[in-house]
């Protein structure tokens, strides 16, 4: 009997994207169930009653939540493509840099887009420093994972695709080829991977989405991915 695998998420979310790419890299047959985050489904509330967020992976009626935890689960539960390194030290370092992206890179960049004045200046400085440190981890490598994408690359998917959209809508230029040539080259290579391309929403749709939500985001500073 075939395994039952479902992914609750939305194509516009960089966090759902992580889980979807992981499943595609492993060549897992799965059902993608789109969630309207403004009207969360009973299924989402049942499978993730604590956080009530996406993504949620449902494997044989067991739910796994939080995007990076989902990616690790996919790596361990299914045969095939190695998302995490086999070496314990390299695996620990991959987890460290994935956490760095979530804790340092994404928040600073996001706030740089939706603040102004001295507050924006402070967040911009933090974002530039974080991006410089992140770029240094690509020295001599095509991907963070080496010759092929891995755990850190999936964690940085928002950097590769969503950052360009956000700064276009916000009218700023933080991540650009002049200041971060290696990171921008990596972003192009990442978005060219077939499993990644299949997991991305059309860029024009996302630009329109964030543009329509711009005033709301600027007022609340809260992410809007639905």
TrEMBL record:
Any GO BP annotation: glutathione metabolic process
Major enzyme class: transferase
Its keywords, alphabetically, are:
Transferase
Question: Would you tell me the Gene Ontology cellular component terms?
Answer: cytoplasm
Q: Where is the GST N-terminal domain?
A: 3-82
Offer one Pfam family short name for this entry: GST_N
Molecular function, one GO term: glutathione transferase activity
Keyword Transferase listed: yes
Source domain of life: Eukaryota
Record-annotated GST C-terminal domain positions = 87-210
Entry keyword annotation includes Transferase = yes
Q: Give the EC number(s) under which this enzyme is classified.
A: 2.5.1.18
Q: Which reaction does it catalyse?
A: RX + glutathione = an S-substituted glutathione + a halide anion + H(+)
Which family is it part of? Belongs to the GST superfamily.
The protein's name: glutathione transferase
Organism annotation = Rhynchospora pubera
